[in-house]
Amino acid sequence: MAKEFSSTTNQNIDSCLSRNCAEISLQDRIKGSLIGFFSGDALAMPVHWYYDVRQLFHDFPGGIRKYESPKSSFPGSIMNLSNTGGGGRGNDSGDIVGDVILHGKKKFWLRGGNFHYHHGMMPGENTLDALVTRLLVQSIIRKGMFDPDDFRNSYISFMTTPDSHNDIYAGTCHRMFFANWKNGVDPEQCPGNDGHNVDAIDALMIVPPITIAHVFSSKEVRYEAVKKSIQVTRKTSAVLEQAYIYSDMLTSLLTENTSIRDVASVAASAIGIDIASEVARSRKDPMTACYIDSSFPAMLFFAYKYGDNVEAMLLASTNAGGENVARGSLLGALAGAWIGYSSFPAHLRDGLVFSESYSLEADAFSDLILPNQR
Predict the structure, then answer these.
(1) What gap in Å lies between CA 176 and CA 234, rounded to an integer?
(2) CA–CA separation, 160 vs 100, rounded Å?
(3) How deeply is 75 buried, as exposed, middle or buried, from its count of CB atoms within 10 A (0-12, 13-18, 19+)?
């Protein structure tokens, strides 16, 4: 599959590899990791939750190769089977979607509709979960540290403000949080868990910035911050092992002269997988749903198989379908940490809808972590 990708991919990576990895500054790695996170999310956005690869390649001939908008019609979407009054599946009589969050967008959730989960979004635009991660970045910049209360308040304000974003989809954890919030529950107690959709890989999307913010902290302090940041929006402990492992992967790429394949191999071993053997005997790339026990190993599979070519890695993950948005964002953060912002594929780095703002925020974030570096 890697042979199908453009020659510019190899040029970008060759440019990176021509430098000694140790010469890439931590500042460039931090900025690259944050931009890579948003790139991986936006690249996969238009084909999020495609479980039929034939449909994906029909809708996007040749597959996704650049930022695209989703198709408006998406037969097979389960958004019209989801509960508009809380988490999981259910009827469309509730008003959490439409009145409390996702203002005016309930029409896309009604029974009989076949809208894509990110209907109407522009090429290079980020999903709601990625934007929630951006709120954490902004909160850390504003407060000079991770402050769960500030992040929570920012999250509530953002989600309940009309037109704060263009996404039409919000996952179970968000719908459960705001169902509780509407009923007057203390915001710290609003996170919920339906026992099915909350313990998912999208919970890890909050991990990259919190890891970067604690790159010089002890492992124990970093793990505690990872736990607290995840539990601001969802009540879960089932994803914490994977969250800590991912945080270790990112920390190693930021601070050690190592590679994506190396950290993927170590991470896979930590959960009992021989990733080299898995990749060698697999005839095709994995397609998985969001559930952490299958989605996290799939993320490691892409990291190991394509880890020496970051654009190939992100495109392969995108075009495999399934839960590719969270997976793509996590792979993108690893990619940027490895090759740095300067060597990140330019069309992905600069093609984001909010690229200029992201760049400024990434600079401010790295300045906070690494004062006096400019």
Answers:
(1) 8
(2) 6
(3) exposed
Residue type, 129: D
Beta pairing partners, 115: 73
Residue 148 CB: number of other CB atoms within 10 A?
A: 15
- Give the separation between CA 242 and CA 292, rounded to whole angstroms: 8
Under CATH, what is the fold of the domain 2-369?
A: ADP-ribosylglycohydrolase fold (1.10.4080)
**Residue 188, burial from CB neighbour count under 10 angstroms (0-12, 13-18, 19+):** exposed
Dihedral in degrees, nearest 10, Cα atoms 289, 293, 294, 300: 120
Domain boundaries, the chain: 2-369
pLDDT digits (tens, 9 = 90+) for 215-232: 999 999 999 999 999 999
What confidence tens digit (pLDDT) does each residue in 159-170 have?
999 999 999 999
3-class SS string, the chain: CHHHCCHHHHHHHHHHHCCCHHHCCHHHHHHHHHHHHHHHHHHHHHHCCCCCHHHHHHHCCCCCCCCCCCCCECCCCCHHHECCCCCCECCCCCCHHHHHECCCCHHHHCCCCCECCCCCCCCCCCCHHHHHHHHHHHHHHHHCCCCHHHHHHHHHHHHHCCCCCCCCCCCHHHHHHHHHHHCCCCHHHCCCCCCCCCCEHHHHHHHHHHHHHCCCCCHHHHHHHHHHHHCCCCCCCCCHHHHHHHHHHHHHHHHCCCCHHHHHHHHHHHCCCCHHHHHHHCCCCCCCCCEHHHHHHHHHHHHHHCCCCHHHHHHHHHHCCCCHHHHHHHHHHHHHHHHCCCCCCHHHHHCCCCHHHHHHHHHHHHHHHCCCCC
Tracing tokens 């991986």 back to the chain, one arrives at 40
With tokens 């992040």, the residue in question is 151
In degrees and rounded to multiples of 5, residue 200 shows phi and psi of -135, 165
d(CA 88, CA 78): 10
Q: How far apart are CA 236 and CA 193, in angstroms?
A: 7
For residue range 143-199, what is the model confidence (pLDDT) as tens digits?
Answer: 999 999 999 999 999 999 999 999 999 999 999 999 999 999 999 999 999 998 999
The whole-model pTM stands at 0.94
